[in-house]
Amino acid sequence: MRAIVTGASGGLGLEFARLLAADGHDVVLVARSGEKLEAIAQELRAAHNVSATPVALDLSGADAAGALVAQIPQCDILVNNAGFANNGRFDMLDPSHVREEVMLDVVTLTELTRAYLPGMRERGNGRILNVASTAGFLPGPFMAVYYASKAYVVSFSQALSEETRGSGVTVTCLCPGATETGFADRAAMHDTLLFKLPKAGAAGVARAGYRAMLKGRDLCVPGITNKFVQWSAKLTPRRLLLWTSRKAVE
Ligand SMILES: NC(=O)c1ccc[n+]([C@@H]2O[C@H](COP(=O)([O-])OP(=O)(O)OC[C@H]3O[C@@H](n4cnc5c(N)ncnc54)[C@H](OP(=O)(O)O)[C@@H]3O)[C@@H](O)[C@H]2O)c1
What we know:
By secondary structure, the chain is α/β, with parallel strands linked by helices. The chain has one domain (about 1-250): Rossmann fold, CATH 3.40.50. It has helices at about 10-20, 35-50, 65-70, 95-125, 145-165, 185, 195, 200-215, 225-235, 240-250, and strands spanning about 1-5, 25-30, 50-55, 75-80, 125-130, 170-175, 180, 200, 220. It has a 7-stranded parallel β-sheet, sandwiched between helices. The protein has a two-stranded parallel sheet with strand order 7-8. Helix 1 (about 10-20) packs parallel to helix 2 (about 35-50), helix 3 packs parallel to helix 4 (about 95-125) and helix 4 (about 95-125) packs parallel to helix 5 (about 145-165). The longest helix is centred in the middle third of the chain and has 29 residues, at about 95-125. The radius of gyration is 17 Å and the shape is globular. The termini are far apart. The model has no long low-confidence stretch (mean pLDDT about 95). NADP nicotinamide-adenine-dinucleotide phosphate binds near residues 7, 11 and 58. NADP nicotinamide-adenine-dinucleotide phosphate (NAP) binds near residues 8, 12, 60 and 133.
């Protein structure tokens, strides 16, 4: 089977690529950092005797999905993992950074799913793993676009998991909380309460999502703290929820 992992040059994506290759799948590794991808591809080929193809591509570009599909027309396992967050007051963010965030976290994820799902359905076999976040369960003042994007990913994935029921294709949404990757660096979040608290390891979070994908589960919220966030977002009064959410990332 051929698997595509977006954001495979580090963090969770690298761990997904390792899990897939260890299970004997051919992997296509997508991210912007071509040299990192080439080194990872070599590691995976040597360790697992699989085909590993690096594709250096900016997935926030217009029709990035089309460019990837032109190179890799077929996919059996799609891991929509690439994502990043802007951190700051919305009206002060650089508009080009906002666009980049929506393109990567929402548009390309949607377009890749739209491109590869029909083939999976025809073959009666396929897996899609979309990486959202516990941020998808609540609004996030000062990371408004990121939290809204992840809410989209949760909703989109769960709807598709129902649409694909019985087709041989499954759609799983992984919702990690703070995890030790390059994410906090890029979002400049190391000084926030959220990232000062203990963080999960990337390998364990990826393993939980990968197992959930293999079982065809619609949602995976790894770890007790993240489950607490999921449930308290449902039960906490909105005003208090917004206040605590703000304090976590301010
Ligand atoms: N870490 C956390 O605390 C956490 C919590 C909840 C959810 N998540 C989600 O987990 C997913 C993976 O993030 P991570 O934590 O592993 O962060 P990470 O270490 O920063 O990895 C992000 C990956 O996405 C790639 N990427 C970023 N911008 C890209 C672009 N424009 N085009 C193509 N690839 C791009 C990066 O590679 P290049 O830089 O080489 O392009 C990298 O491989 C994201 O969707 C994130 O929102 C993370």
